[in-house]
Write a structure and sequence with these properties.
globular, 3-stranded mixed beta sheet, metal-binding (chains A, B), transmembrane (chains A, B), magnesium (chains A, B), CBS-domain, Tetracycline Repressor, domain 2, alpha+beta, cell membrane (chains A, B), 4-stranded antiparallel beta sheet, transmembrane helix (chains A, B), 25 helices, homodimer
Chain lengths: ~525, ~525
């Protein structure tokens, strides 16, 4: 099967260069999607977008073979590598973007833009069609969106946003500063403005924030024929489901298009509508919505108010990426980073510094407690310097056991396997972790004892201190690691935010106390 | 809006208990979905499934108020807490599961089963309807599936699997041992067996493994009317899209049902079909497929062979949970766990031990190198015991900087922002991390110097060792942390698998070398 590739050719300018290249592509069975070119002094530059059955490397070789060794040919699949080639091509002639945007999907275009210097990128925003710009604003992170908003006048921005569906437009508006948002709302065309104002009442991370309001709605007394007619003539985002409502707009149920096709034209929708298996209020967290839809295999989830009146529909497409996003946030939090607000490529070094230093300083402050504890045992270390050699080993073991336990509990909480509110579950986790930690701790203590005996040339008391510390630390670290995420959830915080580095650091303090205390008693006591 | 709750009532048996309770519910505006009950000696036990506008706590109080203080009433939403109540009810009368399964979604039923003792659970598998059992087998982790397969005879299992769609049946079959799989395949009804055999050719984590083959397919010369007829009469999993093929089954394009509704009945499908924006071969990784569908906003992605012949369709529903699953795996890997093969609730303590100990032992082995390095400087520590106090501080800082860098790069790789194959990106990451680390390192070194001066009562050389170590370690840890995921990806490994604990440990060794080496030179040299 053919893969879409970006090919950038850089060769001495000569007549027929393009037709020679396209002729070759034709013979190779490569399908040309579009070709663009320009000359700078005596060099010609061609950009080809192709569907190629050949691998990029092979295609490069074949074209170089045709054009000669002084031609530089680079081919890469769309995505990060292709974006690099696109950016290189646009760098000299940004104006050609209008010939290119037709053939590129917005995510690929955005990838290329992000690889260009800021000033070129800002020029490009101004040239792009309203359609492309709208999609790009929808895909952009907050920093890029601010940059776009800063490069264009409000009319231009409003025109781009007006090309989006209402729920998409609201996504963009919600990321803009309050003042600009109001200004832009005033310039949106009327039906879109009204829908947007309605949706803006809900925070972006709730069911109300992700739902679609552009849905065909009919009454229970309407017929199948009317429903098919509405689907034919109306312009809705959801085109495969009819929402059926009763008195006062109360949700009765949903009818799918394939039900309509199988029913007789005169049948009433009220008889056909299936009561939805679930419905949510608009304030429900979008992560919970996503989890519910996946758990119960629901494609279209109605959003209703407290009185059961229909407000909108959340589609599986709306939430497909929510769980992946939330998990990516967890990975960042576990790694000791703040919630990422922008792409790595876009973040300045100062941005990165600012997002990383707070955690490091916090950990630093806590770790200074550890340093003070060890300092308190300075005389012990002076007499038995070898004690210091085991500090990293015991601390690392504690940290690892703690983060293993945290990861496992975060996962079980996230999958809804256990609940932070169930007393049964908390007791269960506590006992299960205690037993597992005892098993792991004994194993590690036994190995640690042997290892310490070797390293200390048979100092039994020192080796015993190491082994006992390992056992106690494993128990402590496991319980702390397993409990913190549950406590965090009960306090309404993200379990991942308080785990990771924090667990390690809290464990370090306990390790310092246990290890130095034990060593002082056992080893010094014996001498 | 009403929430679905499970209510378990335990009260002295008396006539009219149930009608008293349901009468109260009616007055409270609580909708009764089903009620079941039995008596053990002089106690009656009622299980109610209700849609309640009241919170669980309030409902408990109101029912207790009605039935008297000697009634124990517990209410909880479906999910982990509700499952606990269901399990408690089923424990004494497993046979009642058949009256219950009709009102429960399979995930809720499975949650309840997992909270029961193994012998009761195995009895329940035998009682469940084929439908429920089929769904439960689809949802179960590998350990539970093995338990189910071990509790029932092959005919019973085959009947349950036959209630599933072909791609679901294959999901289940693929998790069973080879021998049993063949046995079961032989007992499946004919069209399902043929489809399953076709799908079984592809690994479960590829496009071919997740695609649906139950799709309406027509030729380009067929008409809109024929397509609508096919949708009306056929029984397909995908009911909103017609696949249009040409000579030899080559994919021409897709037509959606709303296109059909708007077109004239006599129009040829070939004229209507939109060329799909993308198509994949069956071997492509399902994670890549999911990412592509989300990136390009594609709901139905065709799978074709090398010659472009249509094989099946991947729907957004098929892959909605793939990215979340992959991210959950990453979280586990970063926490130093193996890929989770079973639920936390289901895993025995020995399972947990086995999945956690390998990492811990590996880290242990590497950390013993650190211990040996520090032992080599035993005499230095003997003379300046305070050195030991800073070991946790510098190592933890290194570990945290390293895991921050790893998390960031894993995220950027996963989102396709940077590519491990692009030389530009690798250089870019290296330079950006070097600059960020220099900034972070200087900050931490400055604070560290001040802190060490205080703790050491003004020992400049010792404080300088600490500060210099912090700077060097930050640079080293950041580069190691950022590079390891890229190297892992290039070698075809999961970036998360080699990060987390591994980064910390490798950093520890470098820290030991740098810190002890610097201290020996600077501090001892000065004395």
């Amino acid at each position: 099967m053919a893969t879409r590739l970006v090919v950038l050719v850089d060769a001495p300018d000569r007549p027929g260069l393009l037709s020679e290249t396209t002729g070759l592509l034709h013979r190779l069975g490569v399908n040309l999607v579009t070709s663009l070119g320009y000359a700078v002094e005596d060099r010609a530059r061609l950009l080809l977008i192709v569907d190629s059955p050949l691998e990029p490397g092979e295609l490069e070789e074949r074209i170089t073979g045709q054009l000669g060794e002084d031609a530089e040919v680079r081919a890469a699949p769309l995505g990060p590598q292709g974006a690099e080639l696109l950016a290189e091509f646009l760098l000299d002639k940004p104006g050609l973007v209008n010939l290119l945007e037709v053939y590129l999907e917005p995510p690929d275009l955005l990838d290329a833009l992000l690889r260009l210097p800021g000033d070129v990128r800002r020029r490009l925003y101004r040239i792009l069609s309203a359609q492309s710009l709208g999609r790009i604003m929808l895909l952009a992170d907050e920093a890029t969106l601010r940059e776009i908003a800063g490069s264009l006048d409000p009319d231009h921005l409003a025109k781009a946003i007006a090309t989006l569906d209402p729920d998409e437009a609201v996504d963009v508006l919600q990321k803009l500063p309050e003042k600009l948002r109001r200004l832009l709302l005033g310039r949106l065309p009327d039906p879109l403005r009204r829908e947007a104002l309605q949706l803006l009442r809900y925070p972006p991370d709730t069911a109300g924030g992700v739902m679609t309001t552009s849905v065909p709605v009919l009454r229970a007394s309407d017929t199948v024929q009317q429903a098919l007619q509405l689907l034919r003539s109306g312009d809705y985002d959801v085109r495969d489901t009819i929402v059926v409502v009763g008195d006062g707009g109360r949700l009765v149920g949903l009818v799918t298009v394939d039900q309509l096709l199988r029913a007789s034209p005169g049948e009433r929708l009220g008889r056909l509508a299936a009561r939805p298996r679930a419905a949510v209020e608009p304030e429900v967290d979008r992560e919970e919505v996503a989890r519910m839809m996946l758990r119960y295999d629901i494609n279209r989830l109605p959003v209703v108010d407290r009185e059961g009146r229909f407000l909108g529909l959340v589609t599986i497409e709306d939430v497909a990426d929510v769980l992946a996003e939330e998990a990516a946030e967890d990975i960042a939090l576990l790694g000791g980073l703040e919630k990422p607000r922008e792409r790595y490529l876009k973040a300045s070094i100062l941005d990165l510094f600012k997002s990383r230093i707070p955690w490091l300083l916090l950990i630093y402050a806590i770790e200074s407690v550890t340093a003070n504890i060890i300092k308190g045992y300075e005389d012990v270390i002076q007499r038995i310097a070898l004690l210091a050699a085991f500090i990293p080993l015991v601390m690392d073991t504690g940290g690892n056991v703690g983060s293993q336990a945290s990861s496992m509990i975060i996962r079980a909480l996230a999958l809804g396997e256990i609940s932070e509110r169930s007393r049964h579950d908390i007791v269960y986790v506590f006992l299960k972790e205690l037993a597992t930690a005892a098993l792991i701790g004994s194993t590690l203590a036994a190995i640690g004892f042997g290892f310490a005996m070797v390293l200390s040339d048979g100092d039994v008391m020192l080796s015993l201190s190491v082994a006992l510390t390992l056992l106690i630390v494993t128990l402590l670290a496991d319980i702390i690691g397993a409990t913190l995420p549950i406590v965090a959830r009960r306090l309404g915080a993200d379990p991942a935010a308080v785990s990771g580095p924090l667990v390690t650091t809290i464990v370090d303090i306990s390790v310092a106390l246990v290890y130095m205390g034990l060593a002082a008693h056992l080893v010094l006591g014996a001498r």
